[in-house]
Amino acid sequence: MPEIEIVVAHSERTTLRVGNVFLKVDADPARIEHEIIAMDLAPIPTPQVLWHQPSVLALATVPGKPLGKLGEPLSAPPAAWVAAGATIRKLHEAPLPPWTAPGHDELAAELDQECSWLIAHDVLPAALVSRNRKVAEAALRPWTPAFAHGDLQIAHVFVDDNEEITGVLDWSEGAQGDPLYDLATLTLGHEERLHDLLTGYGAPVDLDVIRGWWSARSLLAARWLIEHGFDPDSPGCEFDVLRAAR
Questions:
Q1: DSSP per residue over the chain, as a string?
Q2: Which of 41, 101, 110, 212 could form a disulfide with 138 if both were Cys (CB 3.0 to 4.6 A apart)?
Q3: Is this structure's pTM higher than 0.90?
Q4: Bridge-partner residues for 121, per DSSP?
Q5: Residue 97 domain flag
Q6: For the residues of 48-106, what is the DSSP string, one character each?
Q7: pLDDT tens digits for 159-187?
Q8: For the chain, first and last CA: distance in Å?
Q9: For the chain, how many structural domains are there in total?
């Protein structure tokens, strides 16, 4: 009999693995509906939907393994990152989905709130927060919307032994958004793979915007991670990204 593996669990959603099936349990049924539609619209490999009910989504496992995990050494070769870049470019060139991600003005206001919280609660030195807030400014500009994944963490992209992308997971944030945010999210904490990713992406990219999103995402995520039992100060994770910002 297969065992139940808890993949991730917090107060908003939990993902379980039972044999070859992943069960996603979400407190917000609308997020599951959003994810199903986004996967159907995306022109790149996504997990097969087996069935769903309100608050529960069953997905088939994706072959291969993740590109990596934030805070851990990378094992996927450069060719896998080139393939990931080409896959993301295909997504970004697809017809736009019906949802719109927060705009730069809304994100700037949220970022200021999170920076104030980090300083007020002595989570990070004020000078470090202020420096990264300035770096983040490069990302908070008008952009041409693309079909963006919205949460393209390194653990969400699977690759096989032939360096082919076999699936991209977790589409609940899929929307019309900044394509460079996806590129920055995937390389967060792994700047050394940015060149390979952009080689596969094959389009000019403003590196200051990528660096801005590294800082912005790390600042925006810190409080949520802390309040949900994760440690952004683990080696190689968000706080190390903030310390390395330039």
A1: -PPEEEEEE-SSEEEEEETTEEEEEES-HHHHHHHHHHHHH-SS--PPEEEEETTEEEEEPPSSEES--TTS---S-HHHHHHHHHHHHHHHTSPPPS-B---HHHHHHHHHHHHHHHHHTTSS-HHHHHHHHHHHGGGSS----EEE-S---GGGEEE-TTS-EEEE---TT-EEE-HHHHHHHHTTT-GGGHHHHHHHH-S---HHHHHHHHHHHHHHHHHHHHHTT--TTSTTSHHHHHHH--
A2: 212
A3: yes
A4: none
A5: yes
A6: PEEEEETTEEEEEPPSSEES--TTS---S-HHHHHHHHHHHHHHHTSPPPS-B---HHH
A7: 999 899 999 999 999 999 999 999 999 99
A8: 51
A9: 1
Phi and psi (nearest 5°) for 142? -60, 140
CB burial of 95-123 (b: ≥16 within 10 Å; e: otherwise) equals eebeeebeeeeebbeebeebbeebbeeeb
Q: Is residue 191 part of a domain?
A: yes
Residue 121 amino acid letter: H
For residue 96, the domain's CATH number is: 3.90.1200.10
